[in-house]
Amino acid sequence: xxxxxxxxxxRNITRMDHEKVRGYWVRVVKDGKLYQKLFSDGQYGxxxxxxxxxxxxxxxxxxxxxxxxxxxxxRVFTSCKRxxxxxxxxxxxxxxxGDSVTRAYVASWCPTKGGPQxxxxxxxxxxxxxxxxxxxxxxxxxxxxxxxxxxxxxxxAMLQ
Length: 160
What we know:
The chain is of the alpha+beta class. It has helices at 41-44, 47-66, 124-127, 129-159, and strands spanning 13-17, 22-30, 33-40, 90-97, 100-109, 118-123. The chain contains four helices and six strands; from the N terminus they run βββααβββαα. The radius of gyration is 21 Å and the shape is elongated.
């Protein structure tokens, strides 16, 4: 039995049908740490009960790890090894235009899953380096909050 990846109720759950192992495997990752548990059909009295137990565990662990954003179907990264600005979704750019150099911090976000990425520039020349960075970070946080709250409402409506 395959689980539909399009169904938000199956998020973080994989079906395992091997010779000695039959059940649902829940895997949730946060900050590089894996939280996992297997819900065996035999141990829970069948596929249906194993799936219910897997979903309950998944919901509990996601709530504990992600808090308010646990219901969101979107994945928002809060850390990245390659990040040099200190804030994911905010980066510094310098562009040469003729004789002058334009410097800015850029806040990036993606309002719709799979859709185009958006950018907003905060000029270092006009605002100063600290203020441009502060405003870019505030803008990025506000967009992430919007995305998570709009998607949480949409996903709970889909489940009903």
